[in-house]
Write a structure and sequence with these properties.
The protein is built from 3 helices and 5 strands. By secondary structure, it is an alpha+beta fold. The chain has one domain: OB fold (Dihydrolipoamide Acetyltransferase, E2P), CATH 2.40.50.140. Strands 1-2-3-5-4 form a 5-stranded mixed β-barrel. It is globular, with a radius of gyration of 14 Å.
């Protein structure tokens, strides 16, 4: 789903977003929660990764430069988040794009 349309699905809806990973934050006070900011061509998306999901998809969360995340829409204080259920590192797609546009 394009990030600029995240206001459309209802609270709790299951969606998939993808984008460049701009920021990963793991505050010491967050009890193992990781916050990821993704960017697509339209806007940014805030993602919440709970500790159990992080443990399952650790490599994708840590090393992904381009990520696809499936989760549920959550709204709090006027801010929309995607609470991750599944995290996929799709950085290989970014690498393919770069290779296609390199001069011969």
């Amino acid at each position: 789903m394009p990030h600029h349309l995240l206001h459309l699905p209802p609270e709790g809806a299951r969606i998939t977003v993808a984008g460049l990973v701009l920021v990963r934050q793991r505050p010491g006070t967050a009890k193992g929660v990781i916050f990821i900011t993704l960017e697509d061509e339209f806007a940014v998306c805030n993602v919440v990764v709970w500790q159990k999901i992080y443990q399952t998809f650790r490599r994708a969360v840590i090393s992904g430069r381009l990520s696809r995340i499936t989760g549920r829409v959550q709204r709090q204080s006027g801010v929309t988040h995607v609470v991750a259920d599944y995290v996929e590192d799709i950085s290989c797609m970014l690498d393919d794009l770069v290779r296609r546009h390199e001069p011969p």
